[in-house]
Amino acid sequence: MRKLIVVFAITLLFAQNGEGTLSPVVTYWKTLTQEEKEIFLFSYLTQVYETHSELKSSVGYGGITEWYYDNRAEMVYGIFDQLELVRIAEIVKWIDEFYSHGEYANRPFIEALEFAYRFAEASGSNMWEKYENLKFDKIKPGKE
Asked: Who contacts 81 (Cβ-Cβ below 8 Å, separation ≥6)?
């Protein structure tokens, strides 16, 4: 039944072209339980890693492989490096936070993941402290 609802919701979203509609990925994300979101996220990370590995072996470095690394794989490798320190559940929490704001509700999943990665990695015990620490990091000498 749940799958039928998801398919129906996605079909409705494609049929509408107005503002305020959610993208299919966001709609799907919002239907998942916490455990399903963790599985989805780990699967997404694994898929990006495997795609980059396949590009390196089939096309070599440069071109599309370089673009894919710069725009997808580099962050995923960073997340994998941090999995000892930051749990998948923490990243899921920050993705949920990103999508809870109306202005971000239709943004691509990769943007939500980048937001989650930055906030999960930032020091601080609440969102305000993390935000302030991230803002301070931007203005430190030597950073742009």
From this structure: none
Which token pair is 72?
């997808």
- Hey, what's the torsion of the CAs at 130, 79, 29, 20, to 10 degrees? 60
From 28, 132, 117, select the one nearest 80 (Cα to Cα). Answer: 117
The helix/strand/coil state of 59 is coil
Give domain status of residue 28, yes or no.
yes
Is residue 15 one of the residues assigned to a domain?
A: no
Encode pLDDT of 4-45 as tens digits.
Answer: 454 444 444 444 434 456 678 888 898 999 999 999 999 999
Cα 123 from Cα 127, distance rounded (Å): 10
pTM of the model: 0.68
**Identity of the amino acid at 113:** L
Of 32-41, 54-63, 69-78, 81-90, where does the model show the most confidence?
32-41
Number of domains composing the chain? 1
Contact 136, 119 (CB under 8 A): no
